[in-house]
Specification:
CATH topology of the largest domain: Rossmann fold
Structural class: alpha/beta
Helix content: 25-40%
Distance between the termini: 39 Å
Bound molecules: adenosine-5'-triphosphate, magnesium ion
CATH superfamily of the largest domain: P-loop containing nucleotide triphosphate hydrolases
Shape: globular
Number of strands: 11
Largest sheet: 6 strands, mixed
Number of domains: 2
CATH class of the largest domain: Alpha Beta
Length: 306
């Protein structure tokens, strides 16, 4: 069931496509997320980064409805979805991709986009297609036009009828992103979309992300978890940084680059903190917890650089 929040309970969420406030997740004694809040405005690309084990996937689990937080709330377009299941969140406009593309090997590129489109526009047909892969209902003119437009945006027109089984990883990722976009989401969660891609495939996919957001009539936003920090900094208008379950920084790429806590978390760069570069007074990107966390990080074993 979806409850629409009133202005008193969620004043900041009305203007966001997706937001989470005060999310805490515990696995036994481990605090995987501690009072984390993020927001994704319409029509933006937002980055979510952090070293291994920082809590990024846990936050994605909470946002997509696979994990229930111990406390905190999640909103899609102002609707409180904290207790709403993943399927209902998808109907409210949330889509996601997984690190390993999960494609139907017997189907073509075009078939995947048609199926994605039917999830949104013709749910009954989607289910009948799923149980009978070999006889997917012929697409309507409307469907064909939509799918052709998407193939063009993805740069996949030339291989529309190619079975996905023969595609390299970079093209498989494009198909997975395309299938998610075909469901007409308002927010797409991307879990490490660039992992394993070479330079050219990375350039190709990031250009698709920018085109998809720029061309969207629905104010599409992307929230991207990614270890390729350089790509995140060049793509995103705002970036959230997690470390040991804490949100240690948020801000523009320039602010994140200059942030001492972020440098400490990624590089064990305690010199950045002691030099005073990017301390709370000097950096607009620093959250209240940043100094404490940076200090703690500097004394902890260095995390795996990503
Ligand atoms: N199901 C689980 N049960 C117990 N602990 C878990 C579980 N899922 C995650 N954790 C722990 O929670 C912490 C955060 O994990 P999470 O997978 O969210 O990190 P991450 O930022 O996605 O890391 P990576 O970059 O390596 O994917 C880690 O210490 C992890 O071991
Ligand atoms: Mg992860």
């Amino acid at each position: 069931m979806t409850t629409v929040t009133d202005d008193r309970s969620a004043p900041a969420t009305a203007m966001t496509s997706l937001s989470a406030t005060g999310v805490t997740v515990r696995f036994g004694g481990l605090v995987a997320l501690a009072d984390v809040s993020i927001d994704v405005p319409p029509g933006t690309i937002i980055g979510l980064v952090g070293p291994n084990g920082a809590g990024k996937s846990t936050l994605f689990g909470v946002l997509s409805g696979l994990l229930r937080p111990a406390s905190g709330r999640v909103f899609i377009g102002g609707n409180d979805v904290t207790n709403v299941n993943p399927q209902s969140r998808a109907r409210l406009g949330l889509a996601r991709t997984f690190q390993q593309p999960e494609l139907f090997m017997g189907l073509s590129v075009r078939d995947h986009l048609v199926l994605g489109h039917r999830v949104h526009y013709e749910r009954r047909r989607f289910w009948s297609d799923l149980v009978n892969f070999r006889a997917i209902f012929p697409p309507s003119t409307f469907e064909t036009e939509k799918v052709d437009g998407l193939l063009d945006l993805l740069g996949l027109t030339r291989i529309a009828n190619t079975p996905v089984a023969v595609l390299p990883l970079g093209l498989s990722r494009l198909v997975e992103v395309g299938r998610a976009l075909a469901t007409c989401p308002t927010v797409l969660l991307l879990d490490e979309p660039l992992s394993g891609l070479d330079y050219r495939a990375t350039e190709n996919l990031t250009a698709v992300f920018e085109r998809a957001v720029a061309n969207s009539d629905d104010g599409l936003s992307l929230l991207m978890v990614e270890h390729d920090v350089a790509s995140v900094l060049s793509l995103s208008s705002n970036i959230f940084v997690l470390d040991f379950g804490q949100l240690i920084a948020q801000g523009t790429p320039q602010e994140i680059r200059a942030n001492a806590a972020v440098r400490a978390a990624y590089l064990g760069d305690d010199a950045a903190v002691s030099e005073g570069h990017g301390t709370p007074a000097a950096s607009t990107a620093t959250t209240a917890t940043a100094t404490a966390t940076a200090t703690a990080t500097a004394t902890a074993p260095p995390p795996t650089p990503s």
